[in-house]
Amino acid sequence: MEVISLGTTVSGRRARLLVPGIFCLLASVPALAAETQQLALPQVVEISLQNNGDLKSFREEKGIRDAGKTRAGLLPNPTLDLEGGTGALTGSSDENNLTIGVSQEFLLAGKRDKRLTVAERELEAYRWQLADRERTMAEEVKTSFYDAMLAEQRLKLTDRSIELNRQLLEVTKDRLAAGDIPELEMNLAKVELTRSEGTRIEVERALLHTKARLFTFMGLPAGEAPAISGTLDNSSSLNKNLADLKQLALGKRPDLKALEAEKSRGDADITLAEAEKVPNLTAGLFYTHDRRTDATGTGEEKVRDNLLGIRLSMPIPVFDKNQAGVQEARAKRSSTESRLIAATRNVERDVETAYTSVLNAEKVLSLYKSNIIPQLEENLKLTQEAYRLGEVGILSVIQEQKKFFEVSDGYLTALHARQLALVKLESAVATDINGGVQ
Question: What average pLDDT does the chain have?
Answer without folding.
Answer: 85
